[in-house]
């Protein structure tokens, strides 16, 4: 019984500044009739295939069918977002089905399906769907796992004709791809480039982990990416044989969701899949194998395979798993009741592990989770990040917390806290069910097919969860906890940067030693009521309330300088987003405060508010829907939380209290330092890590504020320095509170008055801070050559140009988005399609609205070191041509239509409007230029993009930054191995 999170996407009419609403173009105008007289009637079978043998209530919004050739299908009418068709074709075969000499073939076939097929010439499929508004990678995609390959198409603006044609074309792609020698020769280098991009420490750790945890089973050496040897040895005949063996109607599930009667959808599936036939008898799936304890293992502690993975520069980590055979279950109600009880037990245990870490345990992070992996094992996985070199102490701490949970029942308070969080989540799913996106519903079916379980409505989940309330007792939760650690064999891996840390015998001995129960992680404190917390200040009503001038957004102003934006949408029940923008963002830091910026995302939020520390905040949030995300933007700091109307006052209190009376618990600060120190050396192990460390700093002309702090700088940072820095930053600059979603406006204004209206007056930003520019390196300051210590066949190349910033340039920034997408398509074609040089090169544009500078365009590719010059040559050739000739009309159409469709789909949710209007309480341009959002994209011309290419790309040479392996790669430029 599976479920996915709900999306909020139902549409309401809009009211705008213009007499003729500019957004009238957004109105959904589907031409798919709700019913079709020419479609046959399909009766729901008494025993739908996905519910066969179960007592789970049938979700009657689905129509399930089976064709005589073996194809199973599921169709459903859904208008979220309006006019979209979501099609999935799932093949019940992945990398685990490959023979030894076929490793990587499942994934290779996935590529070839999009290459050429019975109805598409080579390379025609993606452009065709782009012209219809589908975005590559989002709407048109495929995934290969060990057990399944899924082809996906989310087609916007669908009509009866376009839906029918899309199903026809997609059927031809999957069932009749052109698996020719030429196409295999074209796609193998692309897959190898993808493999190279994913190489390095992460892949080696992943492969070694699989070989240990799944020893003796097929999953141990069946990564979907395959091997160089088998991919280079792939022939058309061998690939055709794999396709014919597994791409059969008996192995296929088709899911179609759209705003049409289910009979129409079922008729489309049957029309195009009923005649699919493959010669020969079906081949049974191979035996995946079972986890087995070694001979002579202690039945009470059956430690089996262990492995030490040495990767210089990587953070120490431990994982041990209690493994059980995967068993095909009868997915009935009782099975799900037991699962839910097990999840509550895991939640209680994870809360204890976190409490121990916060109180000074010897590990930074630890967690327990039960998962069924690729129909291979049913395992309980324990993950640990030690705080330093003493991994034995970290392992002993975690095992001690687990031992105490196994020996002693939890308190009822601990259970109630966990149950309250689950209940809120399930209630939220019910509230969102009518606006769940069709794409999510389609994915839900393919996921259920893969794990061999049924599907259930959110109402069923809530009912089942509440039906077992009498089971949430200390005794039964303890029993469920014990079940988590009952298994056939225990396997473990340890990742370490130092080969002298440990050997396998020491790790095995540590796991076999008796665990000493630790009772100090129990947390049975009483719940906290927000009503008992101190007031922010004197409640003050807004001094001004007026329409913003777009939609029905209202702007509020308070005497203390705080401004608010309110936008109510009842089409998203139970969903409210609160976004607080304040202060100066990156502009506000002094040059020597980079460490305090870097540590803030962990330390600032978790250091508490007022009298509440981290554990208090958790208890206060139990039974509520609250969030507390934090980020730093170029011109503002941002708090954000997803909540609901009944919890909105508490959400506002948390944010306002953080500004007015922040807590300064030093423990989260020290934990953030430990995390930063543990992870620093990993930056230098591959090109992507080096870019994560240095790219922002380099593109900001080596501004010290954007530098990733070194270990010495982190060590030198103090809790007092953090408090001093953030006390200043939290108190200065304007505050805008945006509350968008399903709100009671009067209650929201009252809650704002008690929280943000009660804040002390804000300290204004100094002129130096407000006007401090974000600089781009001067012409002639590059190229820059960085180095990494990873694999010798990995490199990354960046070329970048400055643009500008500020809300007055919003129209221009939108057209730059289109220009960079054209650039990206050309770069993809030049590097990936023609040479297989890079799997996923891309070009992006950023245009900050809060500052008048800092805009960038940059292109990036992960690539073979020998091909770095080719990347720059290709990029410069594209720039020159765009400046001289501009894009073609077809190139522009291929990027405009997906953007138009994305706007139309996204505009049905309140967060779309929040993203467009954030900052509008202080900046009128955000509202004014909202009117032209759609037309700025849809009416863009090749000449406009050509002019932008001339102005920003061709007017100055791009800054080149390359990351090459040490002692290798192209020469030239300033060599840097780190800062």
UniProtKB/TrEMBL annotation:
Chain ranges of the Peptidase M16 C-terminal domain: 235-420, 722-896
Domain of life per record: Bacteria
One Pfam family, short name: Peptidase_M16
Any GO molecular function: metal ion binding
GO biological process, one term: proteolysis
Keywords: Hydrolase, Metalloprotease, Protease, Signal, Zinc
Signal sequence segment: 1-24
Peptidase M16 N-terminal domain ranges (all copies): 85-221
Family: Belongs to the peptidase M16 family.
Name under which the protein is recorded: Insulinase family protein
Biological classification of the source: Bacteria, Pseudomonadati, Pseudomonadota, Alphaproteobacteria, Sphingomonadales
